[in-house]
Structures are given as C-alpha cells and as structure tokens.
Amino acid sequence: MKTIKVSVVTPDGPVYESDVQMVSTKAQSGELGILPGHIPMVAPLQVGAVRMKNANQTEIVAVSGGFLEVRPDQVTILAQAAEKSEEIDVERALRARERAEQRLRERQQQHTDFRRAELALQRAINRISVAKER
Questions:
Q1: Which CB contacts under 8 angstroms, 24+ apart, belong to 34-39?
Q2: Is 123 exposed, middle or buried, given 0-12, 13-18 or 19+ CB atoms closer than 10 A?
Q3: What does each C-alpha distance from 25 to 9, 10, 115, 129 come to in angstroms?
Q4: What is the pLDDT of residue 105?
Q5: For residue 100, which of 112, 111, 90 has the smallest C-alpha distance?
Q6: Most-buried pick from 52, 107, 111, 112 (CB within 10 A)?
Q7: Given CA atoms 114, 32, 64, 132 in this order, what sign does their dihedral have?
Q8: 78, 9 Cβ separation under 8 angstroms
Q9: pLDDT, tens only, 71-123
C-alpha cells in the first residue's frame, strides 16, 4: 500500500517522522484525512491530536495548534509544542489542567488573562486525552 512521509516539527526540533498510510487531524476548518497523493494545501491546526495510521497500528501526537502543509508525497506539521502519546507526563498535564481551571474561576476576582488560561486548559485536556488513547 502507498505511504506518505509525515514530519511533526517544533521549535525544539523534530518530534515525529515516519512513512504512514493515512494522517488525520483537526484543522481550523474541520477534520482532515490525508492519504498519499493528496492535493497540496496549507491549513492552520487546532489544539488536538494528529493520528498516523499504518496497517493495524495508529500513532498519536498531541499538538498545540500550528500549521499543516500537505504535498502529494509529504505532510509537514509545524507546531509550537507536540508530544507523542507515550511521552506525555499525565500527572503534569493533570496539574496544568487544575491550574488553568483555577485561573478561569478566579478571573472575575482578578485581571486574569482569560484567553491564555483557556488555551492552557485546552492544551492540558488534549494531552490527557491523547495519553489515554495509547
């Protein structure tokens, strides 16, 4: 079966690189499924999971938004942060979720940056859900 090369890259360096049969992720415009030979495109990504499927195996990477570039033979994901599901520290993600929820509860009492706390909560929830899918 045909494959497509996938690279997930952050400012700290590459996180994932492999040839896979299918990539699925969530862009700002909706769910995307990418197969070898897909038309070229660029799309902004939401905080979410990127699933790479190969035969009977699915590998998952949690991304904190970013951009997806698709070419017929390659998919490149440029993300501010990304982690493979097996490398996620669930305890750390749970603590991050608790901190973000606390900030959101306190926002009426203080001048908390609501959008920043909301994004931190989304990232923590994403990391926890990706880690549970392994």
A1: 34/4, 34/70, 34/75, 35/2, 35/4, 36/2, 36/3, 36/4, 36/72, 36/73, 37/2, 37/4, 37/72, 37/73, 38/4, 38/70, 38/72, 38/75, 39/70, 39/72
A2: buried
A3: 15, 17, 23, 14
A4: 75
A5: 112
A6: 52
A7: positive
A8: yes
A9: 999 999 999 999 998 888 888 888 888 888 887 777 655 555 667 777 787 78
Q: Rounded to two decimals, what is the model's pTM?
A: 0.78
| Contact present, 122 and 103 (Cβ < 8 Å) | no
Number of residues that make up the chain? 134
In degrees, to the nearest 5, what angle opens at C-alpha 99 toward C-alphas 96 and 101? 110
> Which residues does residue 61 pair with via DSSP β-bridges, in sequence order?
50, 84
